[in-house]
TrEMBL record:
Biological processes per GO annotation: carotenoid biosynthetic process
Recorded GO MF terms: phytoene dehydrogenase activity
SUPFAM superfamilies according to UniProt: FAD/NAD(P)-binding domain (SSF51905)
Keywords: Carotenoid biosynthesis, Membrane, Oxidoreductase, Transmembrane, Transmembrane helix
Keyword Membrane: yes
Gene name of the encoded protein: PDH1
Necessary cofactors: NAD(+)
Name of the protein: Phytoene desaturase
Source organism per UniProt: Penicillium brasilianum
Length: 542
């Protein structure tokens, strides 16, 4: 009897990990990827002897990476993945030239906190860590490793009784204000919402878990670039028999007459047939380009999306000693800068931005005595609005000038622009073209409360059998470790090891007793007058 077969569309983190997991379980797996390289946004940019990470450069939640390798019967070390510890985590620069160095070492944090908060300021940090640590633990237990196939799944007792402790109806900034008086510390402990492409004044307080994992577990960097982690997972998959077909674009998903996914059609006209199809391409793109047109597919293009970025990749002919491995430059008009990105979909007048210098920790990233530098400037995603034109060429020029002026004025570095020998740039339009990202949103759909859990597009397609999704815009969400969790959950669903009964046998009992409380809470936080038809998941509308 032939083994079950699967086709994975897209060789990003979620696709590669899903392929390896299914192959280990006995599936015959083929991965098809439209680009000539694997890793998706975790791929590399090269300038001769210079190397840059195209996307992620901070490895967070290391336990998820170790768990993934462990469940595939190996370890990062065995696969020659060397994880380097960044200490300090990063340096934050403010408009008055003051800076903070965030660290896992409390003895290094103490004088910085007390300088801004006064004596006893460390208690605020400990209080924040207790709360954000609780967010992390509860999310790992009740959210990231669970499927949310329908609205009732949100009524699982474990999640339901933890909901208020996760603070999903308060913003990250609002929660942080409770622990710090200093405006600088409030900014330092909230800007990480941008890891999810979100506004800290609107992102649910739950996401303070990002700062927790930074301070508790540290920030790591894979020697050779982030793609080394995914190349290792691909090798593991290869040992289990996974076949990788690069430069192979998919034009549609093949369905049988009874509405079951049966394979993919390639741009060459070739058809690949399999028992199961998993899509790791951008979910909104897939619904609108690889599947028959539906009202639901169209509605996805109108959902709130994450931001995009203008990213610069600079080769320097010298070392920029004033910069650390990870550097964050925060705008003086902090809230206004986020309003510009998320409400007006533009480049802020004074942008905040992130600077990564991989050569500071990994000498293989640049020739000796020189630096490779990546600058990520968050901007609004693409909008089709004649009243709000987005001239990306002009915005790139303005972003470049703002970045260079800010780095020089705040750090004291001089002659930076004259030391750049080569530049590459990514914009929202190039992100969209290269990776089929809807609206050029680099982190997929938004992670606001009504775009996560049961409200987020499902891992299992609700009407097409044997069709699944992994990656940023399905559950649990964006980010490499979260994509690896998506692969774990998707594989368990496909292999039948997770429950297919939604919230379990206590659902209806809990539902009838708790529904009034849930509605009361939503009304209290201003959600009572929502148009529920726009946020209910597809199966709740059918």
């Amino acid at each position: 009897m032939a083994p079950p077969s699967a086709i994975v569309v897209g060789a990003g983190a979620g696709g590669i990990a899903t392929a390896a997991r299914l192959a280990k379980a006995g599936y015959k797996v083929t991965v098809v990827e439209k680009n000539e390289f694997l890793g998706g946004r975790c791929s590399l940019v090269h300038h001769e002897d210079y190397r840059f990470d195209q996307g992620p450069s901070l490895l967070l939640m290391p336990e998820v990476f170790h768990q993934t390798f462990h469940e595939l019967g190996t370890t990062p070390e065995k696969e020659n993945v060397r994880l380097l510890t960044c200490e300090p985590n990063y340096r934050i620069w403010f408009s008055d030239n003051d800076h903070l160095e965030m660290s896992t070492d409390i003895s290094k944090m103490k004088p910085q906190i007390e300088r801004l908060e006064g004596r006893g300021g460390l208690e605020g940090l400990f209080g924040f860590l207790r709360e954000s640590g609780q967010h992390y633990d509860l999310s790992m237990e009740h959210v990231l490793c669970k499927d949310f196939p329908n609205i009732w799944a949100m009524l699982r007792p474990g999640l339901l009784f933890s909901l208020l402790s996760l603070h999903p109806f308060e913003s990250m900034y609002g929660r942080v204000k409770r622990y710090f008086k200093s405006d600088k510390l409030r900014r330092a402990f909230t800007f990480a919402s941008m890891y999810l492409g979100m506004n800290p004044f609107e992102a649910p307080g739950t996401y303070s878990l990002l700062q927790y994992t930074e301070l508790a577990h540290g920030i790591l960097y894979p020697e050779g670039g982030f793609v080394k982690v995914l190349e290792a997972l691909a090798r593991v998959g290869g040992r289990f028999g996974v076949t990788y077909r690069m430069g192979t674009a998919v034009t549609s998903i093949i369905q049988s007459p009874d509405g079951t996914a049966r394979g993919v059609r390639l741009s060459s006209g070739e058809e690949l047939i399999a028992d199961t199809v998993i899509i790791n391409a951008d979910l909104v793109y897939a619904f609108n380009n690889l599947l028959p047109s539906t009202n639901y597919a169209q509605s996805l293009t109108k959902r709130p999306a994450s931001c995009s970025s203008i990213s610069f990749f600079w080769s320097f002919d010298r070392v920029i000693k004033e910069l650390s491995v990870h550097n964050v430059f925060l705008a003086e008009e902090y809230k206004e800068s986020f309003d510009s990105i998320f409400h007006h979909h533009q480049l802020p007048t004074e942008p905040s931005f992130y600077v990564n210098v991989p050569s500071r920790i990994d000498p293989t990233a640049a020739p000796n005595g020189k630096d490779a530098v990546v600058v990520l400037v968050p901007v609004g995603h693409i909008v089709d609005d004649p009243s709000n034109p987005q001239d990306w060429d002009a915005l790139v020029n303005r972003a470049r000038e703002a970045v260079l002026q800010t780095i020089e004025s705040r750090t004291g570095a001089r002659g930076i622009r004259e030391s750049i020998t080569r530049e590459s740039v990514e914009t929202p339009t190039s992100w969209k073209m290269k990776f089929n990202l809807d609206r050029g949103a680099i982190l997929g759909l938004s992670h606001s409360f009504f775009n996560v859990l049961s409200f987020r597009p499902k891992i299992k397609h609700p009407t097409i059998a044997d069709l699944y999704f992994v990656g940023a815009s399905t559950h649990p969400g964006a980010g490499v470790p979260v994509a690896l969790m998506s692969a774990k959950v998707a594989s368990e669903i496909i292999l039948g090891s997770s429950s297919k009964k939604g919230a379990g046998r206590y659902t209806w009992i809990v539902w009838w007793f708790v529904l009034p409380l849930v509605l009361a809470i939503l009304s209290f936080f201003g959600y009572g007058s929502l148009d529920w038809t726009r946020i209910l998941p597809l199966e709740a509308k059918i």
